[in-house]
Write a structure and sequence with these properties.
The structure is a homodimer of 552-residue chains. The first copy, chain A, is 42% helix and 15% strand. With 552 residues, chain A is of the alpha/beta class. In chain A, helix 7 links the parallel strand 6 and strand 7.
């Protein structure tokens, strides 16, 4: 395979470790912190994790390495969607493992958690690992979405570990994968398998974040890549002065990605799902809010703009969730066949009208016809509406168009409204990691091995103080159970890591809220440009605006 | 407006001039070259340009500046779609103009050629120009698509120039705009207005290229930006191993952008419109070609891939062009109303079936229904099919899906085929110009002023030897008429600059053709990453693969 010049150049990059890990393996010792308890539901969580609950937080510091000298055989798994920097987690883990003892072995389980269950692996060596240093993607061993959560799976996993003499598993994943890592750790401890389990916080969505995890890896690079593209589109809009661009960005459960991109690019509009939910906004209210910006800009002669729409936005609109629930009910059981048998859309529409409540029908009625049809015609194997398929960027531009037509008829608007649509997701999940993500990920992996070496299990590799230069970063470990609470999942109470939503009283949203009125009407676009790896520090070593504001 | 760190850093960049222009204005003299003639239709073109035809090619060299000392008042126009580097053309022009005589004045006509006709301008000064150095976009003065082509417009332009004492106009545009620049130059000369006209070659499409113009500006940055994104998507495909990505890239008239992106990223498939036309390929043949790759990769366990589709591809498919022509005819005159009155799509389909030839009906029949409907339901004000609205990336993925279903039924294919679609256009037209485009554009603008200062008109600012380091670049001017031939446009023979198509016997296509069989079946993806401005020369100072291969 021909390598790009950038890939070749990035091989030369040496990721920066936290200062306390820079003195060589022999000079890393443990500093014990406080015993921990879960953020909520302490008794229930303690009961579920009798062997791993309540352990101490720890940090590493410079000092004589007192860990036990034994051969480590570690397995590593990449779980879920790609995030820039995953390769560096593996590289950091590999380097610490080999530096500690050249006889240590690293198994890479292929294609995600299923690789462990199917005993499908590759033993990693220098030649192979070196091809992936400071690169994007998860192609080093592949990833997958199999969930490791049942006792049966754990038993298989234990068997595979026993077969290879594996002493520890590192799971690189999001909130669900790390929840499962904690459960697996408990299983391994309860069954005296001798297998430790360590998690690493990954997700471009930014929703794996709490008082212990300042940010998940990949968020930095992905949002910078999206912001590069959004900035380019903004500059195009401001040059051509004839289009409104509706840009959907990834992030279904939370709007961190949209917010960070807005902070970087200062668009006219950015919707935040958490705010929509908190204010119980209707589709019509949202459309009206956007149309206000379009109309005010048009009055100033600016018939162009940029709006950022989070992928999951409609799921935050209360009336829309009710509509979806009613549709799912309306089509349950035999009704699906009855509905499908109706010959024309007109017949189907009458069926829908008869079946929905008046309130939901009012919401349904304002949707563009293609989205109305999509809600009924494209359903998942369980017969449910596939909300994720809804093209929310097109939905809102259509609603705004209708709103503006009403304003035009009323004589309150006299502009032009031409739209273009974009969706940014796959474009940023496998970018070359920024210097920040390259450093952070390498540190997470290196640190994960030190946690293994010191015998910890059920811990998350934790690197903090991230808004500061890397030599001031703090490396250590936190029991995963500390981040847990009980939540209802599929009809059962389960201990899970709480997903971090955008906090409406947090500094990043507050900054946005203070400025958006001006951004909506004026043209305050900022053009971040492409991620730079070699330039001046003020360009190359930036953290996200979100992190900078949170730590300000 | 808050500036991004990259924008602030890019202000510090000093664009590189060709060696011969580096000694200061007082040390630039003219070296006369040969008299020129047009590439074809010499007599007809000479007859149309009695005052500007047949002039000498010139280059600049180091030597005493012998130009006449007079105050220059220059107007500059950005014409057509955005291309990275346009700002630097203006900056180079401004710097040479002011260095020659601080009393010289630069008018920026706003919003494209219409700014000249409407006398809408901004006088450029240091404070304003400095905000745009080495940045993307055309927002310094805006751009527009008004064509300057009628005698009436020329008369207005002459009037505006007279009013402000303008001595020269610089038109920054594509092949049409430069054709019009030549016609305007001839008008200005024939009417003794004393106004010179100079063109600069702009277009991300890469189709303004000939033996004199090695490349148009913006092609380098735009294709690098698209290739960054394509590479990221490739890496995602190769990590998740479950999707085929169909990526449409801008470029309606020629497939240079698609080809350059393919050379940079080595996708499994890249369609080239010029080849499709030359081989008279049918839609079914193209789908079969792509399906071969999908099936062969599936047989190796790789149910994923990347296909690049040029925006204008269907217009190169002969049978499709015939179909479009038949549809336009079928709906001419009163038939549109008759067709629209038919109540259901079934009725309309019967009407279509009765009206098309058997051959075109066969083509129509294999199209996905949404594209069938689009062809009939969305027409331009003249009643014509809007070919540019056809989502060719979705068309081909749908055709491939049908093809694979037939293979599956025949037992020759047993894979999975899940698709995702992307369109890359606005994402790259306003990126920060690469070092190459920043240097090339600044040189084009600087050089344009030297042509003005030495009294030339109807010339294109020409900078060549571009595959070499900038100090070896050659700056000069070429009469625009030299690039012209006669072509039929709107029922009339007109002198125009010939549009450059991808040459199937040229080195870039040949390189692609030699490698694509391997790329189709193996995974040979290359990941270019983001454009770098500050790093090692082998990363930052690359030209396009197209130019490198052409000059190899």
């Amino acid at each position: 395979m021909k390598l790009s010049p950038l890939q070749t150049a990035r091989y030369q990059y040496t990721p920066k470790l936290p200062g306390m890990l820079r003195n060589g393996i022999s000079e890393i010792c443990v500093k014990n912190g406080n015993a921990t308890e879960s953020v909520a539901d302490q008794e229930k969580i303690a009961a579920q994790f009798p062997n791993t609950y309540g352990k101490n937080e720890i940090t590493f510091q410079k000092g004589k390495n007192t860990s036990e000298a034994k051969k480590q055989v570690v397995g590593v798994i990449l779980s879920g969607g790609q995030a820039p920097g995953g390769h560096n987690v593996v590289c950091g883990l590999y380097d610490a493992l080999k530096a500690t003892n050249p006889d240590n072995v690293l198994y890479g389980f292929k294609g995600g958690p299923s690789g462990l269950l199917e005993d499908d692996y590759r033993i990693l060596d220098d030649d192979y690992v070196n091809q992936f240093r400071n690169t994007g993607g998860f192609d080093i061993i592949g990833s997958g979405r199999t969930k490791l959560e049942t006792e049966e799976q754990f038993a298989v996993a234990a068997e595979v570990c026993k077969k290879h003499g594996i002493t520890a598993i590192v799971i690189i994943g999001g909130d669900d994968s790390n929840t499962n890592a904690a459960v697996l750790a408990e299983y391994m401890a309860a069954h005296n398998t001798g297998v430790q389990v360590i998690g690493c916080p990954k997700t471009i969505d930014g929703d794996l974040k709490n008082e212990d995890i300042e940010c998940s890896f990949g968020f930095d690079t992905a949002t910078k890549t999206y912001s590069e593209i959004i900035g380019n589109i903004e500059r195009d809009a401001n040059s051509a002065k004839k289009y409104w661009h509706f840009i959907k960005v990834m992030g279904r459960s939370a709007s961190h990605v949209a917010l960070e991109c807005a902070l970087q690019t200062q668009p006219n509009i950015c919707l935040i799902g958490e705010e929509v939910a908190a204010k119980k906004m209707s589709l019509a209210q949202i459309a009206d809010y956007i149309a206000d910006s379009v109309a005010e800009r048009a009055a100033k002669g600016m018939n162009f703009g940029v709006a950022i729409i989070p992928e999951g936005i409609v799921e935050f609109v209360p009336e829309f969730s009710v509509l979806i629930a009613e549709i799912n009910e309306l089509l349950a059981g035999e009704n699906t066949a009855k509905f499908n048998a109706l010959p024309t859309w007109k017949d189907k529409y009458a069926f829908i009208e008869a079946g929905l409540t008046k309130e939901s029908m009012a919401v349904f009625a304002i949707l563009p016809e293609n989205i109305q049809q999509q809600l009924f015609l494209e359903r998942d194997p369980h017969g449910n509406v596939q909300v994720s398929l809804i093209e929310s960027e097109k939905l809102f531009s259509a609603l705004v168009k209708d709103n503006l037509a009403a304003r035009k008829a009323a004589g309150t608007y006299n502009g032009k409204f031409s739209t273009l649509h974009h969706f940014l997701g796959y474009e940023g999940r496998c970018a070359f990691p920024s210097n920040f993500d390259a450093d952070y990920c390498y540190s997470l992996g290196y640190n994960a091995f030190m946690l293994i070496q010191y015998g910890y299990t059920g811990y998350l590799s934790k690197v903090s103080n991230l808004s500061k230069p890397a030599d001031e970063w703090v490396a250590g470990g936190m029991p995963i159970t500390k981040m847990m609470n009980m939540e209802r999942r599929n009809g059962q109470d389960k201990p899970v890591i709480r997903k971090a939503l955008v906090e409406l009283d947090g500094k990043p949203f507050q900054y946005f809220a203070e400025h958006r009125a001006e951004w909506a009407v004026e043209t305050c676009f900022t053009y971040p440009g492409a991620i730079q790896y070699f330039g001046p520090a003020e360009v190359c070593d930036l953290t996200t605006r979100t992190l900078a504001l949170e730590k300000a």
